[in-house]
Amino acid sequence: MTAAPPARTPRSPFARYRHSLWLLTQRDLRVRYTTSVLGYLWSILDPLMMSAIYWFVFTVVVKRDVGEDPYIVFLLCGLLPWMWFSGSINDSTRAFLKDAKLVRSTKLPRSVWVLRVVASKGIEFLLSIPVLVGFAIVFGAPLHWTALLWIPAILLQAVLIVGLGLIVAPVVVFFRDLERAVKLVMRFMFYATPIVYSFALLPQSLHLLASFNPLAGIFSLYRSAFFPQELDWLTVGIGAAMSFAILGIGVLVFRKSERAVLKEL
After folding, report:
1. Which of 75, 36, 27, 104 is nearest to 227 (CA)?
2. I need a surface site. Which of 32, 65, 113, 217 has the fewest CB within 10 A?
3. Rg of the chain, C-alpha, whole Å
């Protein structure tokens, strides 16, 4: 008489959620890379081209000191995380609309459709880090112990993006024009965030106001790996508080609108 196979231990809701999130993230990356010839290279070509343009403008044409030297490394420390931020927010506008049938028919928590956008773009960001390291080696940018601050920087940025995504994704379902409005806001945010210039170059009277842009503090953590003088703890503290506040607001907005979103879809 053969023994019955051992029963599988049922997964906890959190384990099922994590598994589903990982499967959806894999699907996003697979679709994105298998449908293009260059695949992974596309995720780094955009920030590299932007870096080359701004490097040429500020070091060759204008010849103005707007950041630390080597400027190309300074640029990449801001542009690479910016691509994660802007890509996630722009894609969050269609997080529900793109897979409306699946969102309605599956029993998965609806927040997974937002988190898979953040996760897939975050993985692309992590895969671009070797490119930054390569430029730092070529241009002689020394690495400091503050590189350890990349860990809280990544966590804070993830918190911020998830919070904004939980706000944007459901609201766009009701107001479709907001999808274009978000793209315009992203353009404004690019220049309002110290990406192509140093936060220290802002007038002292604007420092406190600019600190309420959470990305200012987060980007100072990234840049401190190669430029410790860019680290501003007050800006980081305000940015961290803003990021968690936005996450809290995002959770509330998402919970309040979830049923209405399903009806609208």
Report:
1. 75
2. 65
3. 21
pLDDT 10s digits, 84-100? 999 999 989 888 887 77
Torsion, CA 21, CA 25, CA 28, CA 31, rounded to 10: -110
Report pTM.
Answer: 0.87
Both tokens assigned to 222: 């990234």
How many DSSP H helices and E strands does the chain contain? Answer: 10, 0
SS3 at position 42: helix
CA dist., res. 255 & res. 170, Å (int): 10
Tell me the two tokens of residue 34.
């298998």
Q: Look up tokens 């691509």; give the residue.
A: 83
- Considering the chain, what is the average pLDDT of its residues? 85
- The Cβ of residue 212 has, within 10 Å, a number of other Cβ atoms equal to 13
Sequence-separated (6 or more) residues with CB below 8 Å from residue 96: 103, 110, 113, 169, 170, 172, 173, 261, 265
